[in-house]
């Protein structure tokens, strides 16, 4: 059974940092690219960042964000720095294969977590 479980969200103040985690099981982790998306109330789910199966081709939609992974732990991470109120959203991790394809569309990703709420107060 495939599972992706996000954690690390919360209520923080403007300018602070958070690291979100996505613990996975049920599939061969290093065969999958991992990505993060976010969805604010009333808006579409949008791409935040991704990383290849071997840690290659990491990129994010904002220079304040960084995606990483630990294949030994089957866990992906999203580092969020200098947070702003407009970063408030539910953050989701997602997985797709093959891991070397670079995709930013939600439709490209097969597996999804349930999301973790990040709220940034001004």
Keywords, separated by commas or semicolons:
about 120 residues; 7-stranded mixed beta sheet; 4-stranded antiparallel beta sheet; globular
Compact description:
The protein has 122 residues and is mainly β. It has strands at 3-7, 10-13, 18-25, 33-39, 46-51, 59-60, 65-70, 75-80, 89-96, 111-112, 116-121.
Question: Can you give a write-up of this model?
Answer:
This protein has 122 residues and is an all-beta fold. The protein contains no helices and eleven strands. The strands form two sheets. Strands 2, 4, 5, 6, 9, 10 and 11 form a seven-stranded mixed beta sheet that branches. It has a four-stranded antiparallel beta sheet with strand order 1-3-8-7, with no helix packed on it. A hairpin with a 7-residue loop joins strand 5 and strand 6. The mean pLDDT is 97.
Helix content: under 10%
**What number is the mean pLDDT?**
97
Radius of gyration: 13 Å
Going by helix content, strand content and strand pairing, the class is mainly beta
Largest sheet composition: 7 strands, mixed
Low-confidence stretches: none
Give the CA-CA distance, first to last residue. 40 Å
DSSP strand count: 11
Helices, by number, come to 0
The SSE string, one letter per element, is: EEEEEEEEEEE
Strand proportion, as a percent range, falls in: over 45%
Q: Rough shape? A: globular
Oligomer: single chain
């Amino acid at each position: 059974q495939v599972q992706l479980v996000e954690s690390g969200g919360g209520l923080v103040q403007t300018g602070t940092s958070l690291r979100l985690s996505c613990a996975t099981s049920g599939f061969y982790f290093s065969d999958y690219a991992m990505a993060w998306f976010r969805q604010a109330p009333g808006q579409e789910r949008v791409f935040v960042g991704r990383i290849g199966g071997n840690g290659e081709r990491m990129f994010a939609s904002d220079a304040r964000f960084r995606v990483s992974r630990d294949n030994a732990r089957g866990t992906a991470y999203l580092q969020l720095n200098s947070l702003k109120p407009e970063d408030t959203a539910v953050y989701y991790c997602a997985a797709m294969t093959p891991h070397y394809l670079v995709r930013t569309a939600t439709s490209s990703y097969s597996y999804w977590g349930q999301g973790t709420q990040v709220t940034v107060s001004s």
